[in-house]
Structures are given as C-alpha cells and as structure tokens.
Design brief:
Length: about 90
C-alpha cells in the first residue's frame, strides 16, 4: 500500500499549492502519485505535470526535475508525444 493521500492534501492546505509543489518536487520520497496517476493515464494531474505546464512559476532546476520524472515514466512514449494540458489553473 502506498503513502496516504491525505498527507499530500494536508501539505497543500498548510503550504498552499505552489509551495507544496516546490516542496514535493525537491523531495526524495517515493513518487507514488506520479506512478499511480501515470498508470491511469492521468499524468496531467501529477505535480510534475503541473510544474512542466506552469514552468514560469518554478525554478529551472525544478522544471528539469519534473520533466526528468515524466520522461522516466513515459520513456516508451512516441516521439510525437505531447504532454496533456491542464485547462484550469490552481494558482
């Protein structure tokens, strides 16, 4: 069984979305949400997907790390793969 999702919700409530995402992208903990949501074809809902989509709000190294994690999950994707876009901003 993976980490409790309520911990993530609590973190977002405590730090607000932007700071929570910055904390999570710099964390070395297991990326349970990334793996689970990616398997469900819902990568646009991962913190990594949000960071790549809204790159202007993050440090370059945070964007690179988010992209690296997505690339690792999608290493077998076609060359023309386009990451899903997020229509609603949470910021």
């Amino acid at each position: 069984m993976g980490p409790d999702p309520s911990r993530t919700r609590e973190l977002i409530g405590r730090l607000k979305p932007l700071k929570a995402m910055k904390f999570l992208i710099n964390s070395t903990e297991e990326k349970f949400g990334l793996v689970t949501l990616s398997k469900m074809k819902l990568a646009e809902f991962t913190f990594e997907g949000v960071i790549v989509t809204h790159y202007e709000r993050f440090e370059p190294e945070e964007v690179v790390e988010a992209q690296r994690r997505l690339d690792e999950i999608f290493e077998d994707r076609p060359k023309v793969f386009i990451y899903p876009k997020i229509d609603r901003s949470i910021f």
